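Structure (tokenized):
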């Protein structure tokens, strides 16, 4: 039901599909939190499918990657159906292109001189996502309202993740108890970025 709903909403409004995509990324835990079993860690959105159901042909992909491919496919189908190709140039295209060329060249050099190909792919995988989204998102997000919606998606999902950690801290008597961590390892970085962003909005007199 959830998958069908996501597909229908994306076909209706591609920008809504992007909001759902970003929400799923930020709400999901990349790794399990020792001593805790939140539903956000059981989603499996960022885990390769063969870790969940071995033997599938697309097992080396994650649900997130399949979702991203679906968004791109819908964008292409929309262009074909409407016969309107509108490509929005991205800022900083030249330095960005040089960065990704260097990244791929480094990966090829490393694997060709004895490096582990699988580990190399895992290391550059996130940068490849960055490159794809760097070009793809400006084709969908073209208004100030859409930018504002994305900011609220990020603020909302990460605030929920912060609330999870806070409730664990409270339930343990305002301590870590015997746990080494109360949140996923990537959460502090994301939350620090959001706090810095919100501080800058207050300092500069802006609003999301």
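Design, position by position:
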């Amino acid at each position: 039901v959830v998958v069908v709903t996501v597909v229908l909403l994306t076909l209706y409004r591609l920008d809504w599909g992007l909001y759902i995509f970003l929400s799923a990324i930020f709400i999901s835990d990349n790794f399990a939190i020792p001593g805790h079993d939140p539903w956000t860690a059981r989603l499996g959105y960022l885990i390769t499918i063969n870790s969940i159901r071995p033997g599938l042909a697309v097992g080396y992909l994650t649900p997130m990657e399949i979702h991203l491919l679906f968004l791109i496919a819908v964008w292409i189908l929309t262009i074909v159906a409407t016969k309107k190709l509108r490509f929005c140039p991205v800022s900083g295209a030249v330095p960005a292109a040089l960065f990704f060329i260097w990244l791929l060249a480094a990966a090829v050099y490393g694997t060709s001189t004895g490096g582990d190909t699988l580990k190399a792919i895992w290391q550059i995988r996130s940068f490849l996502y960055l490159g794809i989204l760097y070009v793809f998102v400006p084709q969908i997000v073209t208004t100030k309202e859409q930018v504002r919606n994305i900011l609220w998606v990020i603020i909302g999902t990460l605030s929920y993740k912060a609330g999870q950690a806070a409730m664990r801290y409270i339930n343990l008597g305002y301590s870590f108890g015997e746990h080494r961590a109360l949140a996923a390892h990537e959460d502090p970085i994301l939350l620090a970025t959001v706090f810095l962003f919100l501080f800058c909005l207050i300092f500069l007199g802006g609003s999301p």
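Reviewer-requested clarification: Residues 144-171 form the longest helix (28 residues). The radius of gyration is 19 Å.
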